[in-house]
Amino acid sequence: xxxxxxxxxxxxxxxxxxxxxxxxxxxxxxxxxxxxxxxxxxxxxxxxxxxxxxxxxxxxxxxxxxxxxxxxxxxxxxxxxxxxxxxxxxxxxxxxxxxxxxxxxxxxxxxxxxxxxxxxxxxxxxxxxxxxxxxxxxxxxxxxxxxxxxxxxxxxxxxxxxxxxxxxxxxxxxxxxxxxxxxxxxxxxxxxxxxxxxxxxxxxxxxxxxxxxxxxxxxxxxxxxxxxxxxxxxxxxxxxxxxxxxxxxxxxxxxxxxx
Length: 259
Ligand code: NAD
Prior knowledge:
Layout: E1 2-7, H1 12-24, E2 27-33, E3 46-47, E4 59-62, H2 66-79, E5 82-85, H3 92-101, E6 106-109, H4 115-130, E7 136-143, H5 153-166, E8 173-175, E9 189-195, E10 201-208, E11 213-220, H6 224-238, E12 243-245, H7 247-252
Parallel strand pairs: 1-2, 1-4, 2-3, 4-5, 5-6, 6-12, 7-9, 8-9
Antiparallel strand pairs: 7-10, 10-11
The chain binds nicotinamide-adenine-dinucleotide.
């Protein structure tokens, strides 16, 4: 059994990880951490901080918020524990703090743990190489009305992939459009965040040429998609040395692919 300390345990993703772990027979939730602890459901060890319960687990899995991600990384670094971190909306300072912690512990970071999104990113690499560089690229993402950060971490990761493939600067990102700014500049990358209802996560990349377009799309219907990837990352990171790990490392590691 791999013992998990689950940060953000009372949240939507925390509950999805809890359910996936219970169904796996391979993982147990040894302790739950949340600033909004729900002591009755499920029963077990709850804490508002990571440090007091850290020794109960083999790995920390965190889906909370940027502050929670930093606190978890600091607690893990102080005790030499591995961390799987999934919160989005991290600032560059937050990201740098996690990167520093990864010099002493194993940190697995992903803005999206679904295997389908990993496949979407691969497919996008192939599509960008295949279509003319003059084709316009736009990202449209949809999420539930309670999501705090916009655009999503996944949309930003897709935008990074596109910027690298097309050698575009950070300033190429155009978040929504309004007004009469004239024709669309060629070196622009539109990112559009739609919020409403209970959408779990929907990402479309549109590659638009003259008289034709190509659409690559991933739809997450259930948070189980992220939870299974996070558990695979937890399995991966418990045997990894200090360092910074991503979905690519897991999917490309021989004999260690996500199950
Ligand atoms: P949520 O609001 O339902 O749950 C977050 C939980 O974290 C809450 O219960 C909250 O009380 C708790 N929390 C907040 N700050 C904390 C702290 N400092 N310490 C401990 N607990 C804290 O949100 P959610 O939908 O479960 O999403 C959580 C995060 O995961 C968000 O950033 C979201 O964008 C991200 N997310 C990532 C993926 C992925 O695959 N990487 C998938 C879905 C969501």
